[in-house]
Design brief:
The protein has 81 residues and is α/β, with parallel strands linked by helices. It is 38% helix and 20% strand. The longest helix has 11 residues.
Amino acid sequence: MAKRSDKILIIDDETTIQLMQDLLKEKGYSVDSALSAEKGLKKIKNYSYKVVISDYKMPKMFGIELLDYCNKHFPELPVII
């Protein structure tokens, strides 16, 4: 199994995503973001992340649905809702 990178993915449809991203970057983390679960899933499929932090309530797909998908297709990827 391939080792995942040390990059964090934040998925949130709110503009406050930038604040969380900035705070994590200040702490030395490499951070990527997506404004929807669908865009986040595309990134998860194409890039390697150490952890995903997701909002719970988003349009079209809730965070819990994203968690279920990741648990099924990317079981080694931790997802925090």
